[in-house]
Amino acid sequence: YEAQVLAAISASKAVIFQPYIMEDRTYPPSPESLATMSSFQTLRSKTEEQVKPRYSRSASSHRTVSINPAVLKQKLSSESAKSSAKSVDELPLSKDAIEAITTFCFPDNARVYSDKPDSSVHFLVLTDVSGSKTYTCCLTFYKPYKLTKEKDGNVTCVLDDFDHSIDDSLPTQYCYMPQCCVLVSKFPYFYAMKECLSCMISHVERDLEEMFQFLKDFTYTMTMTPVPPAGNVIVEMSVYNLSVSLFPSESPEKPVLDLPLHLAFLCFPIEELLKIVTAILCEERLVFVSSNYALLTIVMESFQYYILPLSWRFTYVPILSASSLELLDAPGTFMMGCNSRHLTDVQRV
Question: Which InterPro entries match (predicted)?
Answer without folding.
Answer: cDENN_dom (IPR001194), DENN_C (IPR043153), DENN_Domain_GEFs (IPR051696), Tripartite_DENN (IPR037516), uDENN_dom (IPR005113)
